[in-house]
Structure formats: structure tokens, C-alpha cells
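Lab notebook, design round three. We kept the backbone fixed and only want residue identities now. Task for the bench partner: fill in a sequence for the structure below.
Input C-alpha cells:
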């Protein structure tokens, strides 16, 4: 009746933006991501017949805000007739600030919840369940380079290249640590309804996925850099052109992009990507880590820098 799981966030190189079915939370487009190693969310789920309702602590503090989404996820994982759950979550990075905390949270919750309920599910089925709660969470079930594709009225997720085959690093530049102002579900819906660029985004996504898959297969860093930066800027352009506009960037976000451009001009293999928040993720080869870290740390407005390699998919914790 109790289990603990750990999951790492993932960073999309080819982004998921927009839903084809809001009810089932199915994405309008496929995506490709990398699962990180050093950042994590740990979730303990304990089903308790004596508890009247679900409860949640986040880093030891009771939290009501996230609870409804977590409870709905557990209903899908363990069935609506389940006992009440005590959920304890801990996370070693800022929550809800564009660092994919929902991805690692729902991936860990799905794995822990299924085990606590005594359900043995394949990784693909766990990914589908996690994806119902947060589209990007489905990718955190897998390690390394991960592709999520639409498949009928479901999704299909899997590793396309192991982390050890191409051990890229990610330097995350934190420019703001508070929670984001607009959630990604709401921002996606505004984009879908009002952005003049949305239809062409959906239409062209397969080409970007093909280019990224090919670059990853050939370990072609400049190829991956070009398509990932293009896809990221395209996603933000959709939002900037929506009504009302959604702008997740701040001045330091822009300065980080200039820092990455300067590093590239100096011959460092690095590229940027930005999600639904103001943080900048700089993806680089291992040789470049110290240059990239130093340059981002010295960028005005950057409050912290965290460096991580690529990691594994969500898993149960031994002995938990
Ligand atoms: O899974 P959600 O609803 O948090 O949306 C994730 C959206 C992006 O992070 C911006 C892109 C992605 O593919 O992760």
C-alpha cells in the first residue's frame, strides 16, 4: 500500500505545444526530449483507509494547490474506488518555474501510485497515464533521448538513443525562481485559439522531428543545435503572436541567448532552449561545460546555474 518513486525532469528539444484533445490531454504534435540526471522529484504514495481524503506535502510543507491534479492522476492510476492517499513529494529545484517540475512530479507519482496500488504496468502504459496529467510527464518515464509520438487515440513514447551513446550536458540558467504567471495548459489553449502561426506550427512539426531524429542518430551537434533553437523560437513566436500574448521571457532570458551566441562565435558547441518559463537551458558537449557555466553565471540577471547530464527514466526506489 506504499511505494516511493523518483523521476527526473526532461527538456524538450522539439517541443510539445498545443493539444488535439484537451479532455484526454493528447498533444497536437510529437516531441523529442532529453531526460536529465541531477534534478529530481521523489514521491511517496501511501494508501490509507483511515484517512478521509488525500493529503499532500511538498518539501515537508502541506500543499493544497497541486492536490486536485495529483488526486485525479491517482484516480486514473489506481482506479476511482481507491483508498485516500498520503502523498509526500520532495524536489531539489524550483517548482513551476519552467523547469519541468510537473513532468518529474507526475512521472514519479504514476510509478509510485501504480506500485502502491499493486498494479503491474508496462512502462508504455505508465507513460500514457502520466501523459494524461501532464503531456511532458510521459517522456520522463524514459531515459536518454526520448520521442513521444501520437498513435491513434493514445501516445507512444520510448527512448530513441541511450544517454551513454551521446552524453550531452545541460547548464540551466535560473533567471527567476517564483512560480510562473500562466500555466502551460492555459497558454497552449490561447495559442491554439488565437495565434495566426499555430496551424503552420502543427503542420511543420514532423519535419522538425525528422531533422532532430537524424541529428541524434548521427551525433550531429550543429544539426541538432540548429533544429532545436529553431523549434524553440518558433514555439515562443506562436505565443508572442497570440491574443492575449504570452511572454515567458524576462530581460535576463534574452541576455542568456546573447551569451550563448557569443560562446558559439568563440567555437563552443552549445545551443539554447527555453520552455514555459524564463529559464534558459544551454545544451553542450562535456568539454564545453566550464566555459558555458562561467559565461552564464556572469550574465546579468542570472541568479543561479545548475549543471546536469542525461539520466534514466522514472523508477521505484529500492527498499521503499
Ligand atoms: O506538459 P506540460 O503541460 O507542462 O507542457 C510542456 C510544454 C513545454 O515544456 C513548453 C514543451 C515540452 O515539450 O515540454
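Proposed sequence:
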Amino acid at each position: 500500500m506504499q511505494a516511493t518513486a523518483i523521476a527526473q525532469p526532461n527538456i524538450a528539444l522539439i517541443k510539445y505545444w498545443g493539444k488535439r484533445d484537451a479532455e484526454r490531454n493528447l498533444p497536437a504534435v510529437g516531441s523529442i526530449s532529453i531526460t536529465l540526471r541531477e534534478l529530481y522529484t521523489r514521491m511517496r504514495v501511501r494508501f490509507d483507509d483511515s484517512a478521509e481524503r488525500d493529503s499532500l506535502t511538498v518539501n515537508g510543507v502541506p500543499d493544497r494547490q497541486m492536490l486536485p491534479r495529483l488526486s485525479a492522476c491517482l484516480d486514473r492510476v489506481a482506479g476511482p474506488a481507491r483508498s485516500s492517499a498520503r502523498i509526500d513529494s520532495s524536489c531539489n529545484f524550483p517548482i513551476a518555474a519552467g523547469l519541468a517540475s510537473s513532468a518529474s512530479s507526475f512521472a514519479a507519482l504514476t510509478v509510485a501510485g501504480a506500485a502502491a496500488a499493486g498494479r503491474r504496468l508496462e512502462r508504455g502504459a505508465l507513460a500514457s497515464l502520466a501523459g494524461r496529467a501532464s503531456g511532458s510527464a510521459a517522456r520522463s518515464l524514459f531515459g536518454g533521448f526520448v520521442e513521444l509520438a501520437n498513435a491513434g487515440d493514445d501516445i507512444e513514447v520510448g527512448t530513441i538513443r541511450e544517454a551513454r551513446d551521446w552524453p550531452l550536458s545541460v547548464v540551466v540558467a535560473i533567471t527567476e525562481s517564483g512560480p510562473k504567471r500562466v500555466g502551460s495548459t492555459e497558454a497552449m489553449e490561447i495559442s491554439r485559439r488565437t495565434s495566426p502561426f499555430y496551424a503552420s506550427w502543427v503542420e511543420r512539426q514532423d519535419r522538425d522531428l525528422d531533422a532532430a531524429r537524424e541529428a541524434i542518430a548521427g551525433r550531429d551537434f550543429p544539426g541538432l543545435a540548429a533544429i532545436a533553437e529553431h523549434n524553440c523560437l518558433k514555439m515562443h513566436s506562436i505565443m508572442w503572436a497570440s491574443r492575449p500574448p504570452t511572454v515567458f521571457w524576462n530581460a535576463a532570458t534574452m541576455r542568456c541567448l546573447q551569451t550563448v551566441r557569443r560562446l558559439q562565435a568563440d567555437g563552443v558547441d552549445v545551443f539554447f532552449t527555453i520552455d514555459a518559463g524564463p529559464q534558459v537551458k544551454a545544451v553542450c558537449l562535456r568539454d564545453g561545460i566550464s566555459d558555458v557555466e562561467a559565461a552564464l553565471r556572469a550574465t546579468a540577471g542570472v541568479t543561479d546555474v545548475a549543471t546536469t547530464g542525461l539520466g534514466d527514466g522514472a523508477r521505484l526506489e529500492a527498499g521503499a
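Keep this in mind before ordering anything: The chain has a mean pLDDT of 95.
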